[in-house]
UniProtKB/TrEMBL annotation:
Its main location: membrane. It comes from Salmo trutta. This is Transporter. The keyword Phosphoprotein does not apply. It is a multi-pass membrane protein. SUPFAM superfamilies: SNF-like. It comes from the Eukaryota. Disulfide bonds join 130-138. The chain crosses the membrane at residues 20-41, 47-66, 87-118, 206-226, 235-252, 318-339, 379-400, 421-446, 452-474, 495-518, 530-555. Coiled coil: none annotated.
Length: 619
């Protein structure tokens, strides 16, 4: 904590730049690079931008503005902000649990990026050629010539099975087993990087090169967060800006390649299909991507905003971050599809046939394959995977910040003086929890957590957040809280935000939630279907995250005093400690409230007690 911080107790961002870069780094995630381009060409190319930006305006920005205002007003994390409405405190706990589960598998993706980056330090790139099973040394060996990448209509992904692995039974299969109907990059992903087994039922041993990369990923995060926002705020100067440098380099290189125009036209040019706008699924995809790409209802927006100074213009910040996030998605699409267009030219195929995958497939199969066709391919590959690494690290910084902020807010007397422990310990625990995700069935666990935890739970949490703040706490009260920070605004200014917060945004979330439930299909990885117990486990993860909402609500009512109606009214009203963290910001609206935090902050240092007035900024 610096003596020139406004909030000496919790600390503030060193300057506005560090906050903005951290927030942009948190919002701009891997999905901006590998999911948005896929959704664009799937849903009509440039036509998809229309529903995308409409959903940004009516749902994305309003919810982002809500969460950042909520955290900044009371200088608390996603759990303690619900002192405004104790019966909904379980919503904050749900957000923390989701962030924890997502952090487990998200760092596995960082491990994939690290592995591919290290593998790129060789020429030719190792996924340039096909592999076959060699009986002579019982290993996968490069064929040396490019294999046939034409897929049969009934193709299936060949994967390692127990009788093909030396470490399972100590013997090799007889003869040389060719691996058919896969491109070299697919073979490398399945057979070398993942060493993937055929289903979730076969766990297999830990893939040690991935485990070491996972450990390295967590060490990088722990080192960056060792001093909390004071250290991570310095790291984001690089990690938040470097991806834009790489995207620009890849775009400039991509548009100079043969076939690049075909890729760009497929993405957002003459092949745009405006008729797609009549399909409801296009609007659903746009809304879902907005929610996930802005990291709404994850708790990170509230946690990062809680370290702002009270009178920071949170409205302007929300607009800048949201527009930057969506602009990055569009910009990344040009960089991705210019090079995929070149790959289509090399193969003599339409772009739609070389980019048939989404998510991991685009990032670790299609794009590496495209990069391997470029001159000086190791250089472009290193840059690309280093970019994925920095994108992932930025998101993880905020994910761990959610956990650490909630611990420090809940137990200030235990953790305020142990800043390094509260950041490093979660990293160590989450590394151990992530080891099942780097076994030979690890990709199935990653996909399972992603499809369940990052879906229904976030939609329900966002809906309850809107209902709690605007229908129970009070929309007018919340608007007055915001005006205490940014100044009074006209009623016309608030008309739009009222419409979104009270009606439009909740309606969109309800439609998406109901539609997702009605159209739910069991998760799969490619052609591999999950066993019944795996699907049941996914629903159990959802239940585990959501069960705290009713449990904490019941507990709050039970511990209140009075008759049932009085207890219900008590837990639906702010507690006495609710309001701006510092007394100097209470104003007339909170002047009479009895504060949980005293006017003077008490700090322990060298076994001595120092009383530091809150209005002291310099010695």
């Amino acid at each position: 904590v610096r003596l020139n911080d406004e909030n000496i107790d919790r600390g503030n961002w060193t300057n506005k730049r560090e906050y903005m870069l951290s927030m942009i780094g948190y919002a701009v995630v891997l999905g901006n690079v590998w999911r948005f381009p896929y959704l664009a060409y799937k849903n009509g190319g440039g036509a998809f931008l229309i529903p995308y930006f409409i959903m940004l305006i009516v749902a994305g920005i309003p919810l982002f503005f809500l969460e950042s205002s909520f955290g900044q007003f009371c200088s608390q994390g996603p759990v303690n902000v619900w002192r405004a409405l104790p019966i909904f405190q379980g919503v904050g706990v749900t957000m923390v649990l989701v962030s924890t589960l997502v952090a487990i598998y998200y760092n596995v993706i960082i491990a994939y990026s690290l592995y591919y980056m290290f593998a790129s330090f060789q020429s030719p790139l190792p996924w340039s050629d096909c592999f076959y099973w060699s009986n002579s040394n019982c290993s996968l060996t490069p064929r040396g010539t490019l294999c046939n990448v034409t897929r049969a209509s009934n193709w299936s992904v060949p994967v390692l099975t127990a009788n093909m692995t030396l470490w399972e039974n100590g013997t090799c299969p007889e003869g040389n087993i060719s691996i058919p109907v896969q491109s070299p990059s697919e073979q490398y992903w399945d057979l070398v990087a993942l060493q993937r087994f055929s289903s979730l039922d076969e766990t297999g041993p830990v893939v040690w090169h991935l485990a070491l990369c996972l450990l390295l990923g967590w060490l990088l995060i722990a080192a960056a967060l060792y001093k909390g926002i004071k250290s991570s705020g310095k790291v984001v100067y690089f990690t938040s800006t470097f991806p834009y440098v790489v995207l620009l380099i890849l775009l400039i290189r991509g548009v100079t390649l043969e076939g690049a125009r075909d890729g760009i036209e497929f993405y957002i040019g003459s092949q745009s299909n405006l008729a797609k706008l009549c399909e409801a699924e296009v609007w659903r995809d746009a809304a879902i991507h907005i929610f996930y790409s802005l990291s709404i209802a994850w708790g990170g927006v509230t946690a990062l905003s809680s370290y702002n100074k009270f009178h920071n213009n949170v409205f302007k910040d929300a607009l800048i971050v949201c527009l930057t996030n969506c602009g990055t998605s569009v910009f990344a699409g040009f960089a991705i599809f210019s090079i995929l267009g070149h790959m289509a030219h090399v193969y003599g195929k339409p772009v739609s046939e070389v980019c048939v995958c989404v998510g991991f497939g685009l990032a670790f199969i299609a794009y590496p394959d495209a990069l391997s066709k470029l001159p000086i391919s190791p250089l472009w590959s290193i840059l690309f995977f280093f970019m994925l690494l920095t994108l992932g690290l930025d998101s993880q910084f905020a994910g761990i910040e959610v956990i650490s902020t909630c611990l420090q807010d809940a137990f200030p007397e235990n953790f305020k003086s142990k800043n390094s422990i509260v950041y490093v310990a979660p990293c160590a625990i989450l590394f151990l929890l992530g080891l099942p995700c780097v076994t030979q069935a690890g990709i199935y666990w990653v996909t399972l957590i992603d499809q369940f935890c990052a879906g229904f739970v976030l939609l329900i949490a966002a809906l309850l957040e809107l209902i709690g703040v605007f229908y129970i706490y009070g929309g007018n009260r919340f608007i007055k809280d915001i005006e205490m920070m940014i100044g009074t605004r006209s009623s016309l200014f608030w008309l739009w935000w009222r419409a979104c917060w009270f009606f439009i945004s909740p309606a969109i979330i309800i439609v998406i939630l109901v539609w997702s439930l009605l159209t739910f299909s069991p998760p799969s990885y490619g052609t591999v279907q999950y066993p019944a117990w795996g699907v049941a486990l996914g629903w159990c993860m959802i239940a585990f995250c959501l069960i705290w909402i009713p449990l904490i609500a019941v507990w709050k009512i039970h511990t209140s005093q009075g008759n049932p109606w009085q207890r219900l009214c008590a837990v639906c009203s702010p507690v006495e400690s609710w309001g701006p963290y510092l007394e100097v910001h209470h104003g007339e609206r909170y002047a009479d409230g009895r504060r949980y935090y005293r006017k003077n902050s008490v700090h322990l240092q060298d076994n001595n007690v120092y009383i530091i007035p809150n209005n002291l900024t310099r010695l």
